[in-house]
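Session log. Operator J.P. requested a structure for one protein chain; no other inputs attached. Running the standard single-chain path with token output.
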Amino acid sequence: MAEEQIPDIDERPDPRPAHGRPFVSAGFTPTPPPRTENLWLEPLGPQHNEADFAAWTSSVGHIHATPGFESKRWPHPMTLAENEADLVMHADHFERRLGYTYTVRSTADDDVIGCVYIYPSDDASRDAAVRSWVRASHARLDVELWQTTRDWLHSEWPFQAVHYAPR
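Structure written below.
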């Protein structure tokens, strides 16, 4: 018998925190994401499909080597239509406050260069599990994205304990 594959929390149809409390309070609205000299974030949605697809498909090996992604199933081969369905799911999670995924854009040309995923943790001792990646051609921005996102989560989000692999 084959071992059952358990999907990553952000691939589950309705992710819930392991600790049983709501992921965020009913009154919480994320503040606008920070913008740096090199990058900015906006909520991910199907409007980003082609640029998102180009970003991650050009960087599969690099993403798998990024802290937090080493043992993850994603990225894996997908069609453009499958990618769009994935983006629709992330936008739905955002709207229903089940998880928050942001596309990362370059300030130089507004191109999609990565993603940030903020989802409930499957570890009952943590509120959120956060992962981020940048495309291989923008690898130099990985630490900047991590620091910027970490600081934003610490100052603006209602979490006490977050897992976000250090850089």
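Operator note: The longest helix spans residues 80-95.
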